[in-house]
Amino acid sequence: MQKSSEKLVDDTKSNDEKQEIGFRMNQRVHTVGDTRRIGTVKYIGNVEGYSGIWVGIDWDNGDGKHNGSLNGVTYFEAKDDKSGSFVRPRNLSHGISFLQALELRYKGDSTKEEEDEMYVLSARNNRVAVELVGKSKVQDKLSRLEDLVGASLSYLGVSSVGSRGQINAVVPNLKELDLTGNLLSDWKDVGTICEELQVLEVLSLTHNYMAHDVNQLPVLENIRVLVLNNCCLTWTQIEVLKQSLPSVEELHLMGNKLKEIVPASSNYVRGFDSLRILNLEDNCFEAWNEIVKLSQLRRMEQLHLNKNNLNNIFYPECGPKIDDSEPAEKCFSPFGTLNCLLLGRNNIADLASVDSLNYFPSLTDIRLSENPITDTGKGGIPRFMLIARLAKVEILNGSEVRIRERKESEIRYIRFVMTKMQDEPEEIKQLHPRFNELKKKHGIEDEKPSTETAGPRKMSSGLLSITLTCVGASMGEKKPLTKKLPATSTVIILLCQLPVD
């Protein structure tokens, strides 16, 4: 049995009961007394077997009891099996306005919960209260809202703008604003806040589930950094957002479950003329072809792709084309300005992907950690081999590659290939593209076989000869003894005084 979600409240209920409820479908709410337990209204009405009106909530953190069905009746569809529950209206909060949140955070006294968290443990494991030196001065400074340059209103239940025209009068100098984990969902409200904060440059809307209709967002000339992590966005919405963000330099889109990139006009993403950093970590990208659609962003310097499902990499000129119809005069060198590419925690397992990174014109900062190709326990290669194969890398997996480490890595790599590989030159060139280049760079010639023995070089040719001579007069002279040992062997000579008869 499926109850219609269009019918919000039974017609038989009184107007007083309807007014008491005060919620609407798809409204963002939090539990009274817990601003971090946030969910979306999915049903309002009766529940069979229970009296009164109930609100069906799909909780963000999955902390519910069912999937929207109870006793065989489906009231709404929750995103997970245990993310839905029914709650009495009195136990839910609509949230507060932006200005109320400012007053609460910067002019209100510390709550008992906040005070209780300010302690250290003594040697006997007892709590000792901490008194902050200069706390009153800091609070006095923060309470002057007109002087605030940065504000954090995270998890305060902000759901509306409040009275229009007042925000800029209260915080006229605000440049950075963190609205993480609030109840905002309407882009129109976001636009109003940004328009009133005339010098705002940095905005975080992380963990606000934004509506699909982005068209109500005005042009935000001053926003340089926009953080939209875990906002349930699609790339179609991002393409619309692009029109409102002419000056954005950093765009963070982590945790939006993105699988594909859908450009608005051609097969490549255009616009974002000021974008330098694009963060797509913790999404669901599998095919590198999707990422290639970003290759024409003309100022992109950093691309963060950690924690996706990518299986391989290729440079567009060496791999499949995705747009044969693109006029050549409109293209520039793919990923031409990219100097940082973070690929940690993906599924990259082939050396060809590593070697392809050499084709990226400006790439010097690379992260490949937590991929199969770097897991030496599963057939991956060690750091020195990565350095040797990557000609331009200056920072690998967050660690600087110094001149000495590069030289030692490249020479070690050459010796490794010469020792392990007996293949034909063409095969070596295919498997180790930089091998001949590195030999020439470091002046290392191929080992020539002995004139006495044809074929591969013998192990004995790399041994050291050591002659042991007995000098114990009382024992009588013995003939010198010659042994051959590896060059890395450690020789320990014990001297002792023997008794004389």
Automatic annotation (TrEMBL):
Instruction: Give the keywords, sorted.
Output: Chaperone, Cytoplasm, Leucine-rich repeat, Nucleus, Repeat
Q: An example Gene Ontology cellular component term from the record?
A: cytoplasm
Pfam families of this UniProt entry?
A: CAP_GLY
Domain of life of the organism encoding this protein: Eukaryota
**One example of a Gene Ontology biological process annotation:** mRNA splicing, via spliceosome
Residues folding into a coiled coil are none
Looking up PROSITE patterns in the UniProt record yields: CAP_GLY_1 (PS00845), CAP_GLY_2 (PS50245), LRR (PS51450)
Give the matching SMART domains: CAP_GLY
What GO terms are given for molecular function? Answer: U2 snRNA binding
Localization terms from the record: Cytoplasm; Nucleus
| InterPro entries on file | CAP-Gly_dom_sf, CAP-Gly_domain, Leu-rich_rpt, LRR_dom_sf, RU2A
CAP-Gly domain location, by residue?
45-88
Name the predominant localization: cytoplasm
Matching PANTHER family: U2 SMALL NUCLEAR RIBONUCLEOPROTEIN A
| Family, similarity comment | Belongs to the TBCE family.
Instruction: Tell me the subunit arrangement.
Output: Supercomplex made of cofactors A to E. Cofactors A and D function by capturing and stabilizing tubulin in a quasi-native conformation. Cofactor E binds to the cofactor D-tubulin complex; interaction with cofactor C then causes the release of tubulin polypeptides that are committed to the native state.
* Protein known as: CAP-Gly domain-containing protein
